[in-house]
Amino acid sequence: MNSLDWAVLIGYFGVMVAIGLWSHKRIDDVGDFFTAGGRMPWWLSGISHHMSGYSAVMFTGYAGIAYTYGVTSYVTWSFPIAVGIAIGARLFAPRLNRLRSRLRVASPLEYLKNRYDLRTQQALAWSGMLLKIVDVGAKWAAIATLLSVFTGISLNQGILITGVVTGVYCTVGGLWADALTELGQFVIQFLAGIAMLAAVLAELGGFSALWTVWDRPELQGHAEPTAGPYTMTFLLAYLFIKTFEYNGGMWNQAQRYMATPSAREATRSAWLSAALWLVWPLVLFFPMWCAPLLVTPEKADASDAYALMTGELLPHGLLGLVVVGFFSHTMAMCSSDANAIAAVFTRDIAPVLSKAARGWSHRAALLAARWSTVAFLALSMGIATQVDSPAFKDIITVVIKWVAGLMGPIAIPFMLGLLRPFRRSGPTAALVSWAAGLFAFWLTNYGLDGVELQIQIVSPVATSLVLYVLLGHLKPEDTPERDAVLDRINTEADGSDTGGPDTEAPGAGSPGAGSPDTGTPDAGSTGAGSPAAAQPRG
């Protein structure tokens, strides 16, 4: 990188901070900070949903898979995500929106206290929060790795730079800043992706290379849809897992649906995100598939192939733009995760730990939300410095194995708890399925030797699913109060489905509404099942 590339990169960081400062004016309370007050247009929500779904790991770990196996990287990654989001467009997106518009919650997990009980809510909140610290740590390490290739700065310096810039704009501006920066990042990434595709096509003989390169011996087998450990079984397992994860199972995507004005708008947001996942990764992956024709990676896993190819093919200025594209994905995902985790901590965990948190004023709750965001980013940056240790092995291991494997036990009670067919599954089913899923992850990854990758990934979520459904039938725990929660989430014939945004913050000033000992709403609570929640507002 020369001075022109650095100018592009520094200018990008400056714009991101400026957007955060501008968004600060739109933040009056925790409802604005966590769900944009229910005023986010569907197209912005859809782009934000898409951008918050992947990071620079695509240009490192998945670039290595694309270099080695070709089209398999798309077929077994972005394609099942697109299909999963399309499934959730009708199944989950509108119901997640109703959590905010009808139950008046600001955190995706707030409803769990009344859908199950306080123990279940806390188990899912703590385990999900710890998992996301590790997950985001891997994302910081990925972008720092790329930055190191281009600039020569150390891994820890790269983590610090990206973390601090992200922390400024997402802490100041909340979900509005996340979404608006993700829109800008999408535009930048679009330009960078097209520039890289054009450069590769020019190097390989023009537009016709799109269909002629596959006959070259260096790309033998690269057109196969599944290859290596990424088998058809892996594809089906990944589709199953990503249907839960990318429809809200890891919370940050759920916030995008909650932020739209209505359930109908949330559905449109999901369809847009699904379309982007289906089409756009093809543009990004093609240069990676052709990388064996252009560069020889220095790393055994070829995770540096895309970065090396970028450095060789693009002129200065465009090189800086592509590096900015790397940053855009990572900062989008990490900032959205930080906001989601801050919501869960502030709204679900802090009120249980502290009596004072249950009586926070608007100002105190918003301050706590911002400090929680800072703390999460700091912890994840600390984890990032250890991501290549023997415990984590490497970046792609963290992303594929840890996140995909551990997400299921957390997401199953949260996501299926929204649906009427699972109304009989109560706290026992939720907690047992969660605990057994975590044990299945440990057993297949560390307790047994020689377990295939697809078994390691699918066994935790499959164990959780089977036990959640089975215990719901063997030990039904549906009650009128829990059925009332489900009615509010599932009923379509209600004005709030087509109504406007919140007229007040969801539970602002009372993050712990409800008794911390029993999970039963206190008098005057707006929690689901309480008299105040019996009628929609607005």
From TrEMBL:
Residue span of region Disordered: 487-538
Gene3D superfamilies the UniProt entry points to: Sodium/glucose cotransporter (1.20.1730.10)
Stretches assigned to coiled coil: none
Cellular location(s): Cell membrane
Topological category with respect to the lipid bilayer: Multi-pass membrane protein
Biased composition (Low complexity): 513-538
Keywords recorded for this protein, A-Z: Cell membrane, Ion transport, Membrane, Sodium, Sodium transport, Transmembrane, Transmembrane helix, Transport
A Pfam family per the record: SSF
Segments crossing the lipid bilayer: 6-22, 42-68, 74-93, 129-153, 159-179, 186-210, 230-249, 270-294, 306-327, 364-383, 395-416, 428-447, 453-471
PANTHER family noted in UniProt: LD47995P-RELATED, SODIUM-COUPLED MONOCARBOXYLATE TRANSPORTER
Family recorded in the similarity comment: Belongs to the sodium:solute symporter (SSF) (TC 2.A.21) family.
Descriptive protein name: Na+:solute symporter
UniProt organism field: Streptomyces changanensis
Classification of source organism: Bacteria, Bacillati, Actinomycetota, Actinomycetes, Kitasatosporales
